[in-house]
Amino acid sequence: MCGIVAYIGKKEAFPIVIKGLKRLEYRGYDSSGVALLSNDLRIYKKQGKVAELEAATKSSDISGTIGMGHTRWATHGVPNDENAHPHLSQSGDVSIIHNGIIENYATLKEGLSQRGYQFNSDTDTEVLVHLIEDVMENSNLSLADAVRASLKQVVGAYAIVILSKNHPEHLIAARKGSPLVVGIGKDRGEFFFASDATPIVEYTNKVVYLKDGEIAIVDNMEMIIKSIDNVVQVPYVQELELNLEQLEKGGYPHFMLKEIYEQPRSIFDSFRGRFDANEGIFHMRSLEEYSQKLEEIKRLILIGCGTSWHAGLVGEYLFEDFARLPVEVEYASEFRYRNPVLFADDLVVAISQSGETADTLAAMDLAKRKSASVFGVCNVVGSSIPRLSDAGAYTHAGPEIGVASTKAFTAQVTVLTLLALGMAKIRKTMSIDAISKVMKELEAIPAKIEQALKLNDEIIELAKKYQHVSNALYLGRGYNFPVALEGALKLKEISYIHAEGYPAAEMKHGPIALIDEEMPVIVIATNSEHYEKVVSNIQEVKARKGRVIAIISEGNNSLNSLVDHVIQVPETIECLSPLINTIPLQLLSYHIAVLRDCNVDQPRNLAKSVTVE
Ligand code: G6P
């Protein structure tokens, strides 16, 4: 949700900033811009992708060792050159890039307009840069103090970087509610600022994750971090675990395909070293340190957005089956604005790939205020959600760059499986033998996914047949109902085909009216307790001339004459079947999107990390 990157040091800033913006483009890609500071302050902005900005600056002066850039996901104002960041103050002295939303921008704008400020964009951000200048002009405050004073007037979320023509030795950055990482360069006085560590990793592995309400001030080659109340903070310098290879496509045409193919590895990484299947024992710090709480809780509430919410739905089945606990699954965006009845013995599990989703963070905050405990399941190390959690477990899927989530989903389901099993052990709702059996089967999943990936060519043929449809229906029952939702979401997100996921039996209460000879119905019918029921649902679709693609277990030849296409996947136990059944659905949506010439990694209107409401 907007990406920001900035550099101050001895190197040329432009190449660093542009490369950084390309890495951050998953956060927004409707327009971008850079500001460069040497003798003067130059700003270049362009609607469209970062590559378009780069092309537009080919013959411009791009020199300067101080610079910042922004890639935008529009909130206030349409995507165009004017609304792209950086924005300039009225005098042209101060420039800003911003990720987040200034919620009280209308009130601030009114006051500034009355004091004669003119606005060149429709953004909330421009208000802030005028405000900073206004504070400077009406006080004796330094630039840094004026930024602090202005931020005190702001309601909302921000990660900002500020450069000033009249203070070329300064770079100021601040955060509240939107992420910001500082890379400490190898040379004295060299600093990198970015929404995440991906633009920084090739220059340094020493980073500081700014905390909410902190402001970083680079002044004459030194950096100091203060609270918004001007108290000096001691930075916690961390070492990055990220490596450059993880951020490249590695020969694949798209990040999404690379990430689909990474799943045998990423699922393995999600459980690696975390249990001993023969003994049925766990080696998970969160389970050990938090075991008393996990024993005492009376209810689980799983929250998330998008694909992470779907993982939560799979979690509902897992926790109910294994740990015999009441479970609710909530959209974070709904939960945060309800008045939920929560108790101290409730555990809220926040699920998130990015760890920065604004709604999930706000829902966690609400849960904590209402005395519940919060457990984070997150992929991005050091992000806000793990920091706000009382305890948690990382999914260890590695960086996910494709906007449509794939490997993060299967990693979330894997970690939720471990947690549900761990809680079953703590609460003695499953025998060690039964736990060990699931663990052993989990260990076999990466190899089975490897097998499922071999379906790729078959799925390409299927994609060719169905690439032109306008609607699709995905059906599943039990553990595979969330998989149907996730399959439909993937198709919608990247190929812009309207798709719905439904519990197979609910189809007859509505969607059945949509079925005709055109409508592909993708039914997850792998071996399960409900298999026969799902076959009856398939019959109902076929009786209305629907076209059925059935995902079935290997060796099942009984549906060949009933359905239009079968996709045979390796068999596993039902509770782990979402991990395998998701794979052909990811591949199907990927290939349909490629055939429709869609931008697979950066689908229109979407962003990977949604840091605004
Ligand atoms: C966005 C992304 C989705 C993701 C959702 C939740 O909509 O495009 O892929 O599932 O946010 O994000 P999170 O990082 O919290 O999992």
Describe the structure.
The protein is an alpha/beta fold and 613 residues long. It has an 8-stranded antiparallel beta sheet with strand order 3-2-4-1-10-9-11-15, with helices on one face. Strands 5-6-7-8-12-13-14 form a 7-stranded antiparallel beta sheet, with helices on one face. It has a 5-stranded parallel beta sheet with strand order 19-18-20-21-22, with helices on both faces. Strand 12 (214-219) and strand 13 form a beta hairpin. The longest helix is centred in the last third of the chain and has 22 residues, at 432-453. The structure holds 6-O-phosphono-alpha-D-glucopyranose (G6P). The site of 6-O-phosphono-alpha-D-glucopyranose (G6P) has 15 residues, from helix 10. 6-O-phosphono-alpha-D-glucopyranose binds at residues 305-308, 352-354, 357, 360, 403, 405, 606, 608-610.
Mean pLDDT: 94
Question: Beta fraction of the residues?
Answer: 15-25%
Structural class: alpha/beta
Number of helices: 19
Looking at the structure, what is the overall shape?
globular
Ions, cofactors and other ligands present here are: 6-O-phosphono-alpha-D-glucopyranose
Evaluate the radius of gyration: 25 Å
Low-confidence stretches: none
Major sheet: size, sense and barrel closure?
8 strands, antiparallel
| Order of strands across the main sheet | 3-2-4-1-10-9-11-15
The portion of residues assigned to helices is 25-40%
N-to-C CA distance: 10 Å
Please tally the β strands and state the result: 27
